[in-house]
Amino acid sequence: MPDPAQLRHLHAASAVAYPFTELCKAGKLTEASATFWADDIMSVEPFPGPYALLTGRDAVNGKVEYWSRENTIHAVAVEGPFVNGDQFALRFSLDCTMNASGVRSVQHETALYTVKNGRIVEERFFGMF
Amino acid sequence: MPDPAQLRHLHAASAVAYPFTELCKAGKLTEASATFWADDIMSVEPFPGPYALLTGRDAVNGKVEYWSRENTIHAVAVEGPFVNGDQFALRFSLDCTMNASGVRSVQHETALYTVKNGRIVEERFFGMF
């Protein structure tokens, strides 16, 4: 029988992972970030450029707003949470059109979240290229 | 235009991620680990017990062998690689039967691999509970 203390440690992120994921699956991404991001959240993207590595809620929201202007989302599928200790992962499929080119595609990514003191302190994105 | 040096750094794991994933998708898991694991690979599982945290090829192979004895795999689906810098993620769905109980289910997990000097130095598993 697993030791309860070990289980609590191993799934420390669950208290954030499950409600955060539920909001994401309901399309409530703004509420999810407002509720669960730490003020000094760090965001790590797999591509280069001005949004590759950001710190702080305002900066990361700036990236989200930039992305929302450049793309039209048709559908989002969210799978997870996949949990281990103080981290959890979500798998996203975003059916979207790049506004500038009109090109529509499905973007696949895995997002890895690190939790500390009941807040997400880092979001790290992994892309399929 | 992205800086080539930045792209190389951001996708440093790709040289391992793509061939490793190809072997996994072909069902050649033994060859994948034999080819790409570092000798001192660390393995981190999300559940407690003797196989939760292991170091070294022999120890991790011991976990794989234990799991293979306890379970019968009917099908494995592998998605990815999802890449960022020196890490990449794979998403696994394993349709398997626990031999002891006869219970069949589909296990979903995300595996996060850390690459150093052309070898996988850590595999970290995230489960859906």
From TrEMBL, chains A, B:
Classification via Pfam families: SnoaL_5 (PF20409)
InterPro entries registered for this protein in UniProt: NTF2-like_dom_sf, SnoaL_5
Recorded superkingdom: Bacteria
Domain SnoaL-like: 15-126
Protein name, as recorded: Nuclear transport factor 2 family protein
